[in-house]
## 1
Amino acid sequence: MLIIVIYLVRRTRFRPHFGVLTMVLLYLFCAARLLLPLEFPYTVIVSDSVVYPRIYSFLTRKPEPITHLPVGLFLCAIWLFGAVFLLIHYALQYRKAIRAARQARPWDSRTASLLSEIRRQTGRTIKVRGRTAANIESAFGVGVLRRYIILPDKTYTDAELHYILLHEYTHFLNHDTAVKLLVTLYCIIFWWNPVVYLLQKDLEQTLELKCDRAIAQTLNAQERTAYLRAILSAMKQGCTQQPVPQPSTALFRAEADKAMRERFTAVLACAEQPNGRTTSAVLIGSFAVLLALSYAVLPQPAFEPPAEPDSSSTVYFNDENAYLKQSADGRYWLCIDGHKPYELTEGDVQFYLEHSVFKYIRETEQ
């Protein structure tokens, strides 16, 4: 439910504020709910005697022909295998992207000087390495701890290069690569739940709109036009549209015609954004309310009590009205006055003798 709420909020005017805070709160919410299964006085217990008992019985049974493990433990093993596989795949993909960034050619002095100017312009300094690669079509930023801005090996004017670098640098200021990493890790952990993939849906566009609007707020109308012209020029130069590494923030994507129109409209309109502190307060308050509501209802499986035994079919015996005997063929019998003998196993006999129900076994020839 919380993921669905986040997805719907991202489609409103709060979209530019989807970031690290949102994902950290989501992780904390899940951790609190999983580790603290509390029952408060206001909690309403909802008993289910149809669905939950069947689920419980299914998870605890042991399908002998397949495995001796309970079904629940077997499913946990499948979940763990899937999560580890996806994590390794993502780690290799991320490592490949970072390795490619390290091996690319360092920037020339002109580009490095423009980045220094952008640092002064934003008033925030973070360590970012610059590289130029010949096999890409779009500028992109990659890395969470070691950050790289990768530029294609193309010719840009000073204005175009300034705005391209400003765009990618702003992504790092917004911690957008960390957001993508957290979203990906969340989807890896809960890969079996189709709802979590709503977090990834439109994530790229959400981060791009957030970045564009953050930049537009610092520019006048003429500079906004120049900013959009620089993005458009970069798109026109990208002809083959080779994909950029997945764990990155790109200036544009190959399939982004409709998305680009949305970005251009947002920059030109440059609507007032909600106050940052107010938005954070609303976000934290919403998470707190949802966390409290999640404890309000507690579904529990309900089982019917076992039926009382029929006293008319119950047979009571002890060493005064019954005895054990072993026939000549080695079989054991429980003999009760007024009833037919009951055949016993050796385990049954051993149980009766160990618990002093009978003192000895009578031997007979029949």
## 2
Amino acid sequence: MVDPLNPSDKAVLAKAEILVEALPYIKRYAGRTFVIKYGGHAMGDPEAAQDFAEDVVLLGAVGINVVVVHGGGPQIGAMLKKLGVESSFVDGLRVTDKQTAEIAEMVLSGRINKELVSWIANAGGRALGISGKDGGLVKATKVHRTRKDPDSAIEQVVDLGFVGEPQHVDTRIIDTAVSAGLIPVIAPIGVGDDGHTYNINADTMAGAIAAAVGAARLFLLTDVPGVLDKQGGLMTDLTPTGIAKLKDDGTISGGMIPKLETCVQAVEAGCDAAVVLDGRVPHAMLLEIFTERGAGTLIRND
């Protein structure tokens, strides 16, 4: 009989209670797909990378199909600086000439992609590193942006170079990998009808893939706890209508706007729900999915 005063026995019981709490969620999501965008400064932290890989492998072990889409902006910036290539940005998007595009593909599809594959392998999983160019996964189209001239207030077209966005997602290579028990790890690179290679924002890429596979969840791992109200409190549940109001009153601004726009597009196009949460928190995804209290901001359709 368990001694209720024994601290070690209490710890064991607490672990058992965690498993019991997680069971209904495991049953709910078994056989479904999670698309996870992994990026931010957590990518540069080996301990955080190990935690992330362990979470991915655990999700797969309980029957959830996992698809990882990774970013790499800081790493691209570091490589460009190392090679003496100047960078400029428009509304948070890097202006990408041919040389920059080649360097971005090298960093994303090479170094970062294979590092993540290795982390997942070290955690006991089997991953397949690809980009949007492989198997015709993502057909890209060139991004067009406009901005007002500060002096004349006239709208001007800005050429971002080889920056693209998903035009079409062909999920066959993902389906093949998942059916073989592999975890696709995808670099945000696509090819256009013009044959050019395009660098794609990783959030946008993940959202398009989540919609195409009908994911149960799209996770955007960021460097913030989620969407915060004006007092700094975490908002745990949002809808597209609520997000529009928060944009209008200035509660959300800056880099959070395109992230939430990605979430809205994904849930309106077939993904059950999206979650914005802090990738720096150990096992944040597991807390969000397998506990009642969650860990980030959940976005569902109205």
## 3
Amino acid sequence: MSLNPSATPQEPAQLRPYADLTPDVVLDAVESLGFLVDGHLLALNSYENRVYQVGIDDAAPLIAKFYRPGRWSDEAIAEEHAFVAALAEREIPAVPPLRIDGRSLHRHQGYRFSLSIRCGGRDPELEDLEILTRIGRFIGRIHVVGESQPFRHRPTLDLQRFGEEPSRFLLEQGWIPSELETSYRSVLAHALTEIAACYERAGAVHMLSLHGDCHRGNLLWTDTGPHFVDFDDARSGPAVQDLWMLLSGDRQAMALQLDAVLEGYRDFADFDPRELHLIEALRTLRLIHHSAWIARRWEDPAFPSAFPWFDSPRYWEEQILILREQIAAMQEGPLALF
């Protein structure tokens, strides 16, 4: 039973954006660019877009990424591709889409897609401070490129886009169970107030082009170091956005980890310590935005199966508790560097 009875009706194409993306369409799309597929197709873990490993006859498999209709403009996708290509040109380990006939974004039967080489790797051991320092060096190099290549068609990570707008969507579209709505409204309003206070304490921090979603799932570790993947959420924001998701544990553990990351980061880029005020604020924004993201995609059949717990009162009870914890964390102040 849906908790969202008042949701605005949508067109069928929006409700099931990948309904026509059959295996044959995927294989035909790859072959339309001159590759001979061998019939092997493996769906990879992705919900916002659809990503497949496609077998190529007498060659290594390719990764085919089909972009969610209506999410990004062609210009925004081209900007992401150009950013990743600029990183690769500077020998920063990121995998850009292949350029075929001068283009990296292609079309087939109404879908936009790109192809890239397959990059293997394992989960990084972020508990190892030396590994964090090495990752920090590469993030510093990414931000040097981001400083020189500002986004014009991709959004900025801020309180309005990641906090206020998602909050309004959740409340206005009836996603909160009636018995929890008053509590959720109250704690959400308090959280947004504390986020704003964190931004005020940080002051006018500098914005640059970022990976935007630099968590361990988007890092592949190899014997030569990390590979950064999935720049789909690349956007403008403060440098610390690409750092805080590498941290885990209690405050002392996170402070040690952050110190290790910054040791490498500062080899290539300056870091404004005022941005430390934003770590818990950005974590809270991500929590709010994530709930709204699932809600906005709920009619996509992939989402109820991937997040079966979302459409239940227990989820929202847990969110109330988590937001209260985040309020306390924001009030506690920033991490102290060693």
